[in-house]
């Protein structure tokens, strides 16, 4: 019997990756293609869905060539995708009626404000777990239906269908035979009722939509359809794993039990905690979503996002304080450890758990002896303090003890930051060897569903680097209290 390979499509904000994993779960090749960021004069952000679909087909061919495998030994496909990015298309033609509106795009702000003024905000939060915001899919789809003539025409004839990027790719890869999404993506649309596990008809109506326009919601490891990538493969293979990218990373990190959490460090940061089989609605400014549906069981998460993680280091680089991000930990390590400078990076307000859009960035606690190294140290450390704020809110909301934090993303190579993060949290940090967590999560879900991988053994074999806390409890408390004072001072202004 020949080899069996798992193919993952990781469709992200900046580009599309194709990843090939062998029968033991090892990543053997990756290829990627970028797509255009279509930004208007007023800052609205779009993607061309047809370009992204072409890139999916293109990256699959590239990764097969790069890996040298027999393409007919690909046994199953998984998909992870940029969340909240939304689009609509005509089911009779299979053509988009408009570009995809990207998760970053705030064009639905006026629609959200209008709905808030009508008094629906609390109803929406209680059902969907999400504070009303143009960030989520609902307002983006409402904007398309209000402003795009082709969408209005298709809706009148009953031919308009809408979804997130995963449902578009599944639809195209199956030749229009399958119109499905998974629980994780559905839960980020602000149209899905977490208590009833179905599209909420009333909320759809509030946004001017119909539940019949939306895809069938499935378990994340369900059979989403069959694809041969438009004839590239010798036979059609199943699409058996679909997850939003952050959920894929949580699954790939092995956070399969209540109280387990991961933080992805990038330009910003996404922190996600598995809270088990019952939804917990946050009282601390966090979002509640669905982690995934696996083997017929749905699990939930608490999630918090911060705007400035790696972006803080880019900012101090732009000031000329460092010539590259690699310099930051070196300077921080050599700074006066007793310096009390804090940076609160509220350049565009503070996100979770504060949700204060009017806040602005500030330095707090500068003394006469504060120099360049101390300012860089404050920039490094503010990332860890923000993550800790979210983790503490998660522990408070869930009542669950967190014994470690699994982390991923480029900044995890910064050993000063990782050690300080462990110190401030008072728990170990665990960093996996692989960096392709989102795609790997979807691939592993698909491989397990197809019987290629054994869930217990494939996750048991993961290698991780560990950082253990070294800071005394009294010192941790002192530093965290200083951070709280700095944030409070920022919020006053």
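Q: What amino acid sequence fits the structure above?
A:
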């Amino acid at each position: 019997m020949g080899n069996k390979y798992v193919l993952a499509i990781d469709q992200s904000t900046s580009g599309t990756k194709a990843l090939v994993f062998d029968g033991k779960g090892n990543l053997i090749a990756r290829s990627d293609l970028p797509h255009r960021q279509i930004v208007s004069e007023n800052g609205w952000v779009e993607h061309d869905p047809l370009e992204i679909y072409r890139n999916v087909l293109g990256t699959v061919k590239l990764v097969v060539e790069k890996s040298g495998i027999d393409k007919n030994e690909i046994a199953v496909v998984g998909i992870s995708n940029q969340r909240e990015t939304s689009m609509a298309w005509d089911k009779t033609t299979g053509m988009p009626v408009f570009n995809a509106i990207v998760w970053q795009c705030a064009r639905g702000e006026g629609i959200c404000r209008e709905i808030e003024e009508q008094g629906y905000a609390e109803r929406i939060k209680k059902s969907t777990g999400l504070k009303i915001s143009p960030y989520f899919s609902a307002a983006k789809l409402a904007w398309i239906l209000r402003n795009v003539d082709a969408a209005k025409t298709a809706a009148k004839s009953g031919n308009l269908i809408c979804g997130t990027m995963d449902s578009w790719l599944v639809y195209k890869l199956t030749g229009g035979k399958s119109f499905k999404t998974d629980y994780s993506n559905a839960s980020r649309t602000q149209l899905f009722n977490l208590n009833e596990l179905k599209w909420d008809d009333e909320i759809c109506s509030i946004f001017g939509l119909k539940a019949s326009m939306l895809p069938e919601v499935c378990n994340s490891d369900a059979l989403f359809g069959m694809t041969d990538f438009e004839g590239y493969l010798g036979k059609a293979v199943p699409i058996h794993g679909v997850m939003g990218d952050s959920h894929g990373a949580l699954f790939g990190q092995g956070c399969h039990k209540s109280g387990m959490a991961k933080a992805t460090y990038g330009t910003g940061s996404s922190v996600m905690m598995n809270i088990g089989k019952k939804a917990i609605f946050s009282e601390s400014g966090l979002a509640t979503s669905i982690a995934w549906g696996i083997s017929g069981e749905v699990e939930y998460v608490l999630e918090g996002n911060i705007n400035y993680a790696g972006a803080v280091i880019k900012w101090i680089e732009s000031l000329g304080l460092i010539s590259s991000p690699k310099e930051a930990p070196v300077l921080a390590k050599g700074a006066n450890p007793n310096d009390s400078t804090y940076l609160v990076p509220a350049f565009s307000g503070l996100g979770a758990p504060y949700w204060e859009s009017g806040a602005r960035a500030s330095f707090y606690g500068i003394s006469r002896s504060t120099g360049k190294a101390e300012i860089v140290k404050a920039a490094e450390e503010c990332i860890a303090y923000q993550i800790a704020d979210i983790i503490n809110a998660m522990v408070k909301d869930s009542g669950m003890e967190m014994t470690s934090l699994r982390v991923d993303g480029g900044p995890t190579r910064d050993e000063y930051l990782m050690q300080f993060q462990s110190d401030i949290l008072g728990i170990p940090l665990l960093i996996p060897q692989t960096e392709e967590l989102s795609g790997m999560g979807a691939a592993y879900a698909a491989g397990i569903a197809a019987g290629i991988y054994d869930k217990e053994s494939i996750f048991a074999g993961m290698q991780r680097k560990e950082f253990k806390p070294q800071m005394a409890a009294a010192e941790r408390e002192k530093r965290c209290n200083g951070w709280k004072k700095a944030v409070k001072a920022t919020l006053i202004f």
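Q: And what stands out in the fold?
A: The two ends are 68 Å apart (CA to CA).
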